[in-house]
């Protein structure tokens, strides 16, 4: 079977928009969705090229699933393809979470949230377990990479070593290993024998780097200056109109810092967001932050989109446009928080992508990324343990209903290949039924 020569731009845009509505399950679930659709079914990109891009995104601060969408969109359709892929991927979650935040503040606590979350939380544990298994089977190709994954798990779960240090350690191990045992750090992927019938991909293992994706110093500087100019210009506008110490200007600066510190996904940066938004600036209370996390778990898209909720509540309560326009203030806060959180990710991909493409096939350059990918398997496994402790245990007692839901969900994902959207809907329904059953 021959791959299509090109992917129509409109077809790609429709896919990224659809993905934004069905991308439940956090970054692991979102990456799994993209892999199943783009690598296995549509054959827009090969396994090896997909993993090469993913390894780079894992190295960066920010939401790796969003960055991966930008990277693949950029490879397929140049700069605007990457920009629109990222925007369409995050737009549904921004709109949905902003609407839920408005309902939450205007009419109080949603009565079904507790029941829904009782079902969704075990499903999230199952999705993370399945993601660790699937990524591990693709990534851990030899004993050296398995050892890196185990060490990463122990480092974060037992020794509580910060994620950036784990990434740095894995990169150094890969850098040294690429020189000593280059065969152990060869990039994985390719066309497995069992999937030969899938045929070639639009961007295949041996497809030359597109002209627009080749590195040039001028292109690097142009993207960097454009991104910095947009961020600086937006912040100066907010500071000029609403004051340097105004709520919106403070949000812009705060969420820029949060974006640059978000190694390891949303849960790694949430403590920093809580400390600043709750304790330092008082944009919302601790109880509101917990409720916002629950809302974030029930919406598609990157979990770091919780910043839109934080921005909405901060804009609502601090009312930069006056108390009579609290809704408008909330929408402005959500947009400002989202802009300054996600803009660095677009710059990282559009500026660094050509460098990553130029290093493809050079094991000395790809070995650190292979080692980081192995370490991420251990980190994802530790996340499953962390979630499990909070979901399955309460006051020293085991929540057997949650254990049962997670077990059935894991079996559905790994054995029967049930889609994440179907799984989450079924688990949410089970949570509602069980909550009313014991009410």
Automatic annotation (TrEMBL):
Keywords: Cell membrane, Membrane, Transmembrane, Transmembrane helix. It is a multi-pass membrane protein. It comes from the Bacteria. It is found in: Cell membrane. The chain crosses the membrane at residues 12-33, 53-76, 83-107, 113-133, 145-175, 220-242, 254-274, 303-321, 327-353, 365-386, 421-438. Signal peptide: none annotated. Belongs to the chromate ion transporter (CHR) (TC 2.A.51) family. This is Chromate efflux transporter. It comes from Massilia hydrophila.
